């Protein structure tokens, strides 16, 4: 797989996620995106292609986060951080995108309890997920954006 293929995949994920976000709330700038792999061969292909586009910024149990150089220009801003997720049967979607919000606490108060919205708690932060079952991408809004978690 080539970098051009990754760029097409990422732009598609981010564009779809922005449209979903806009259906429910107004999407901010893209903060982070993730491509979901569905088997080990696909994971290796995606990983090898993304590895040529930047450096590993953080390794996690579910996959590495890469700092891209240069960033990918998307419809909602430049994407600097991209993750290739290891295969996970609970993630049949194509991927996800995280968007910035000006005031996370206010955003949470306004939107929790709405259809397709869920709160996900992680160590040190939380995020709100929009999972519309009609769509093949997920949307997230983090209390601490990934780019800040990584110190960029």
What's the arrangement of secondary structure elements?
Blueprint: H1 3-24, E1 30-36, H2 40-51, E2 54-60, E3 63-74, E4 77-85, E5 95-99, H3 104-111, E6 117-122, E7 125-130, E8 137-142, H4 146-149
Parallel strand pairs: 1-4, 5-8
Antiparallel strand pairs: 1-5, 2-3, 3-4, 6-7, 7-8
Explain this structure to me?
With 152 residues, the protein is α+β, with helices and mostly antiparallel strands. It has a single domain, classed as Roll (2,3-Dihydroxybiphenyl 1,2-Dioxygenase, domain 1), CATH 3.10.180. It is 30% helix and 38% strand. It is built from four helices and eight strands. It has an eight-stranded mixed beta sheet with strand order 2-3-4-1-5-8-7-6. The two termini are 28 Å apart.
List keywords for this structure.
152 residues; alpha+beta; 2,3-Dihydroxybiphenyl 1,2-Dioxygenase, domain 1; eight-stranded mixed beta sheet; 8 strands; globular
CATH topology category name: 2,3-Dihydroxybiphenyl 1,2-Dioxygenase, domain 1
Question: Can you count the beta strands?
Answer: 8
Named CATH architecture: Roll
Q: What portion of the residues fall into strands of 2 or more residues? A: 35-45%
Mind describing the biggest β-sheet? 8 strands, mixed
- The overall average pLDDT, rounded, is 95
Morphology call: globular
Overall tally of structural domains: 1
Report the uncertain regions. none
> In angstroms, what separates the terminal alpha carbons?
28 Å
H/E element sequence:
HEHEEEEHEEEH
| Assigned CATH class | Alpha Beta
- Kindly state the percentage of residues in helix: 25-40%
Question: Counting H and I runs of at least 4 residues, what is the number of helices?
Answer: 4
Q: Tell me the name of the CATH homologous superfamily.
A: 2,3-Dihydroxybiphenyl 1,2-Dioxygenase, domain 1
Radius of gyration based on Cα positions: 15 Å
Summing up helix and strand content along with how strands pair, one would put the structural category as alpha+beta
Order of strands side by side in the largest beta sheet? 2-3-4-1-5-8-7-6
């Amino acid at each position: 797989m080539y970098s051009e293929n990754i760029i097409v995949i990422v732009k598609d994920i981010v564009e779809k996620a922005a449209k979903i976000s806009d259906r429910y709330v107004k999407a901010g700038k893209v903060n982070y995106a993730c491509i979901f792999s569905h088997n080990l061969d696909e994971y290796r292909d995606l990983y090898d292609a993304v590895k040529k586009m930047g450096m590993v910024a953080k390794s996690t149990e579910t996959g590495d986060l890469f700092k891209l150089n240069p960033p990918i220009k998307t419809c909602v801003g430049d994407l600097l951080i991209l993750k290739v997720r290891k295969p996970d049967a609970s993630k049949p979607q194509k991927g996800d995108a995280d968007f910035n919000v000006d005031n996370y606490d206010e955003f949470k108060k306004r939107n929790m309890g709405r259809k397709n919205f869920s709160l996900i708690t992680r160590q040190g932060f939380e995020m709100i997920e929009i999972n519309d079952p009609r769509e093949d991408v997920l949307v997230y809004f983090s209390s601490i954006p990934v780019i800040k978690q990584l110190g960029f």
